[in-house]
Amino acid sequence: MTEISAGYRVVFVHAHPDDETVGTGATIAHYAHRDDTHVTLVTCTLGEEGEVHVPELAKLAVTDADQLGGYRLVEWQRACDRLGVTDRRMLGGIGTWRDSGMMGLPANDHPRAFWGADVDTAAADLVAVLREVRPQVLVTYDPDGFYGHPDHIQAHRVSVAAVRLAADEQFRPDLGAPHRVAKFYWTTVLKSSLAEGFEAFKESQDNPFAGITDPDDLPFGVNDDEATTQIVATGYGDHKLAALREHATQVPPDNWVYVLAAKLGADAVTTEHYILVDGERGKGFGTHNWENDLFAGVDRHHT
Ligand SMILES: CC(=O)N[C@H]1[C@@H](O[C@@H]2[C@H](O)[C@H](O)[C@@H](O)[C@H](O)[C@H]2O)O[C@H](CO)[C@@H](O)[C@@H]1O
Ligand SMILES: [Zn+2]
């Protein structure tokens, strides 16, 4: 049980080791370094089915020694150290849920695949975290898991169930006093940001968007006015890049994020966007009236 004294508390729920950095690394570093804020990361799987971009580690892959999950656990811990996150947990405990692989692959049917988890059963473990940490804010993916990966979709579903169940006083009183999360966010990315990044994508061999020239052809991304919140974590670009480097099996040296940072500086990777889907929107700024703080409008004494 973590003794939490900070007034502001946020829980990030991610699917695999590296998602915390790739999608929300600058935001996490920004809040983890605030004296008045406690960040909790809950990651749902060990990433056993991932690729291995480090040649000398190639045989850790699921097709050989099947040891990648244990190795990515260490990558994840080191990346969290770079971001400043000390409260990091695997959903249900280390090794409970297994990486399900990309949609439609046989790994989806592994007996421990997160994709096959009973949602309320998995949610109960997240309820225990929410009732302990008592965050005002929870961040996870949209219903499509941002890009359709089964573990991302399941992370969304388990988070939605856990937020509902944590507030239900009839649900598992043994897991702690009921808790209502004040603001529930989905991660997102702007199509306008993707268009700016396309040049960097082209220069990366690891270009996941090869052949795509129009952001509207990507399986993710929203129009500027669909986002509600922009976090500009100035000064934490180096933290995010250092954390990415810890995820070397997943993020090769020529990854487009490194290309972008090399061209435009580390702060080019410190702006991250979110959609508030439940809770009261706080004060906004600029053309799109975006919040500039996940805790905008939150009473720090809300527990
Ligand atoms: C960012 C993320 O969610 N990565 C997942 C994803 O990785 C993809 C997968 O290896 C795919 O085969 C590649 O073509 C693609 O480039 C990768 O992003 O899925 C993995 C397997 O479930 C998962 O381990 C990884 O964390
Ligand atoms: Zn992932």
Automatic annotation (TrEMBL):
Q: Which reaction does it catalyse?
A: 1D-myo-inositol 2-acetamido-2-deoxy-alpha-D-glucopyranoside + H2O = 1D-myo-inositol 2-amino-2-deoxy-alpha-D-glucopyranoside + acetate
Co-factor binding comment = Binds 1 zinc ion per subunit.
What top-level branch of life does the organism fall under?
A: Bacteria
Key words of the record: Hydrolase, Metal-binding, Zinc
The yes or no answer to whether the keyword Nucleotide-binding is present is no
**What are its E.C. numbers?**
3.5.1.103
Acetylation in keyword set: no
Q: Read off the InterPro entries from this record.
A: GlcNAc_PI_deacetylase-related (IPR003737), LmbE-like_dom_sf (IPR024078), Mycothiol_biosynthesis_MshB (IPR017810)
One protein family per Pfam: PIG-L
Any one Gene Ontology BP term = mycothiol biosynthetic process
Give the Gene Ontology MF terms in alphabetical order. Answer: N-acetylglucosaminylinositol deacetylase activity; zinc ion binding
What cofactors does the UniProt entry give for this protein?
Zn(2+)
Q: Which residues bind Zn(2+)?
A: H16, D19, H152
Q: What class of enzyme is it?
A: hydrolase
User: NCBIfam families this protein is in?
Assistant: mycothiol_MshB
Q: Which family does it belong to?
A: Belongs to the MshB deacetylase family.
Its job? Catalyzes the deacetylation of 1D-myo-inositol 2-acetamido-2-deoxy-alpha-D-glucopyranoside (GlcNAc-Ins) in the mycothiol biosynthesis pathway.
User: Could you tell me what this protein is called?
Assistant: 1D-myo-inositol 2-acetamido-2-deoxy-alpha-D-glucopyranoside deacetylase
Query: What organism does this protein naturally occur in?
Result: Stackebrandtia endophytica
Q: Which gene encodes it?
A: mshB
